[in-house]
Amino acid sequence: MADHPDDMARASVEASSLRDQLATIRLALAASPIRKYLLWLSIGIVAVIVATSIGQVLLNRWNQPFYDALARRDMQGFLHQLLVFAAIAGTLLVLNVGQTWLNQMIRLKLREALTLDLIGEWMLPARAFRLTHAGAIGVNPDQRIQQDVGHLSDLSTDLGVGLLQSFILLASFIGVLWTLSSGFVFHIGGHSLAIPGYMVWAAILYAGIASWLSWLVGRPLIRFNSDRYSREAELRSSVVRVNENVDAIALAHGEADAKRQLELDLGTVLGAMRRIYSAQINLSWVTDTYGWITVVAPILVASPVYFAGDISFGGLMMAVGAFNQVNASLRWFINNIGAIADWRATLMRVADFRIALGETDVLHDTEKRIVFGENPDGRLTFEKLEIASPDGCTKLAEPHVEISAGERVMFTGDPRAGKTLFFRAIAGLWPWGSGRIGMPAKEVPVFVPHTPYFPLGTLREVLNHTGGAAKVDDAEISAVLAEVGLERLSSSLDRSARWEHELSNDEQRLLAFARLALRRPKWVIIDEALDTFDGATLRRVLSMLETRLAGAAILNIGRGQHNNQFFPRSLTIVKDTGRPALKPARVRAGAIEPPPAVAVRREKK
């Protein structure tokens, strides 16, 4: 083929902001048909969390009479408090199970909503094709849609529910802690110092210092996690590429080269993981230190009130419980700094992918566009057509070309002339350039690429993949298969398979021409799909087209080594390197480009 993806323009990458990323996710959810279900689930989990917080407050209050009964050796009071505990704990158990179910359902529906949104955006006409020419953001869309969205849904649900629960518990227990320490006066060196609610301020100061230190130490994890996901995508892509080319690798004895490539990609993954682990170890020094201090911190903070005799032993335990709840709520950030960094990195990959999908429609927005129109006389015309590319301009040798219905035309050119680029321009996939393409009015041409596409399904469904046209019967299918030399497939019409794996390359193209004959279009545009056939196979295909598409206009782009009687007219595609080259596109994205060492290594392959 004349145009390899590596020859296309690559996009520069501009990082989007957190605000843009969150706005993108909100837009995706707002447009989802699942948003009402998500809303009701969210309302339900808020109600459960509020009810759980009330139960936690009641459980904290239960500490005082329970421990006071122990201190008094009051058996009757002790047994009564055990019954109270059973009632509170039973209610909290039911609420906890309900919260778990709601949490899982939110995960499920959030993933469904985001995945369907990305699939819908990705599968808009020509979007996926243009994304492949948008730089690093277009690499491995499968990982972003499948793995990253699932991970983002899990993290967003867990972190969101945890933050909400911590906020409600904080609001519930901060009043309890304030009341217990509101009237206490410190006596220091003959001076009296009253600090209203000093336990509250102690908890805020304690958790605030820990949060600040955790953020300083854990912030690099955002970048490290994003880098790891990019490297994992590279490794998976290499494994898939090797698996798809095992025959060629075995024949070329290329196992050593393939192994070396996989080992290099694995090395980048392991390097990214080492950086994450080092950052996590540094973070553990902070979080674990504060975790051990927390064992005694609440007792130390509440001990002045207890030793002054202002509260009983049960009151001390109640204060310790309230302090722990307030501190746990304030420590939510500390405890989740690693998950927050992971969430931030995953959000960046998913949101930037969706942003890039929308911006592929304006790729090269400073460049001129080819004008498309319709010709009422039913002709296909090219008026001063120039197709912009990174290495010059592709055009026809003749500036004004008209092709009438029923004509058969051969387009030829040098290997670097840009024949596939010309094919893509006619199809509307590559709109950058100048001039006009006039399509025949009320006609939808069928484009036959060099490598055909077959949807998953039975062979009958593949051959009836006709864009809404009437289905054909089995007898006609069998007749067409026989005409192209695939009569053995007539007995497999109801078998479902990945036909691109079961058939050889030539057989796939023959099957594509059989499907074309069954579709019976009025205009056909072919991109080098006839070039690989030997003489006998080519004559068989042309004979089938002559019989079944007698009145159709057939335009073949290729090497020109075909039957001149079938293609009596010839046009030449040329490359004008003197024309301005297509400039690199600009797509906002936070994707991390491959490091220079990887890029250089691949160029040398």
What report would you give on this structure?
With 605 residues, this protein is α/β, with parallel strands linked by helices. The chain has 2 domains: 13-362, ABC transporter transmembrane region fold, CATH 1.20.1560.10; 371-588, Rossmann fold (3-Layer(aba) Sandwich). Helix content is 60%, strand content 13%. It contains 19 helices and 16 strands. It has helices at residues 18-30, 35-72, 75-122, 127-131, 141-181, 198-218, 220-244, 246-251, 255-307, 313-330, 332-335, 337-359, 419-427, 459-463, 474-483, 499-502, 505-519, 535-548, 596-603; strands at 12-14, 185-188, 191-194, 371-375, 380-389, 392-396, 400-403, 408-413, 433-440, 446-448, 457-458, 496-497, 523-527, 553-557, 569-576, 586-588. Strands 4, 5, 6, 7, 8, 9, 10, 13, 14 and 15 form a 10-stranded mixed beta sheet that branches. A two-stranded parallel ribbon has the order 1-16. Strands 2-3 form a two-stranded antiparallel sheet. The longest helix has 53 residues, at 255-307.
